[in-house]
Structure prediction request, 122 residues.
Amino acid sequence: MATIFILDDNRASSAFLKIILARHWHRVSRITDIKKVTNHPSDSPPELVLINHAFRNHSGWEMFNHLKRTAPHIPAMVYGLDQLNTANADWMVKAVEAAIGEATFHPARHLDSSVLDTLFAE
Prediction:
């Protein structure tokens, strides 16, 4: 279970994603302003921010780049949904869960110091 922000000005696509991801026990909030992510309290950042590629006044990639400049520690993913259907839902769930897994897995946490010393010995 992860806390996910959906940065999207399209109510239909964000509602679709919210329902799909909530069925997989994720806590999902829709936001429409990147400032709500970057000004979010640092003690409880989202575990993933999903950014719609198409906004009325901005590109999702512009927002992604802004987020990476201002809050590089927050994992983010840009998405595009042309159709709201079950095939896209399955794909999004797999992509989201892979991104969360990648963001929360730190190999150094799973290795003791002797293994790290061996790996990084010259």
Q: What stands out?
A: Strands lie at 3-7, 27-31, 48-52, 76-79. The radius of gyration is 16 Å. The chain has one domain: 3-119.
